[in-house]
Amino acid sequence: MTPSSSFRPAVEGSGAAASSGAGAVARGLSAEPIDMVGMLAGAHHPGAGAVVLFSGEVRDNNRGRPVSYLEYEAYGPLAETMIGEILAEAKSRWSLQTAVAQHRTGVVAVGDTAVVVITASAHRGEAYAANRYIIDRIKHEAPIWKCEHYADGTHEWGNNCNCHAVTGDVSKHIYEGL
Length: 178
What we know:
Blueprint: E1 11-12, E2 29-30, H1 36-43, E3 50-57, E4 61-62, E5 65-74, H2 76-93, E6 98-104, E7 106-109, E8 113-121, H3 124-141, E9 144-150, E10 155-157, H4 164-167
Parallel strand pairs: 2-6
Antiparallel strand pairs: 1-6, 3-8, 4-5, 5-7, 5-9, 6-8, 9-10
């Protein structure tokens, strides 16, 4: 598989300024559609027996309300730095060969991809665990804000973190137990 011509770089697990190795890239936010094929093509590694791709898609409803589209805003420099740190931590913790992520900003239509996380490791258990950890931390910690625009013309900011419904504590996130 070769990268597509529209491949947009994502942040790789050795920091936002990564410049070597599989999946090495320069940024983690994109106002343009995410090229999953290109990201996946760049994520393969000869030492990896497992590659896990998570794609967060915009669905047409939330909590019983029809959704027209989402809009994301981010504090770019900090978000990219934080995503790089999260990826680097996961890469070290699970001995990953590859850890990449990219998040959209701007308007994202129903059915489009809002975020992609790809992990590659020697075995599937590590790749799956790390992937879940990365997406949970990006969703809950990176300064990226979501506004849901509903079919009735109303909109609502937030809804990024609902861990308290599971943990019973607004300051404790689901991934902290991993």
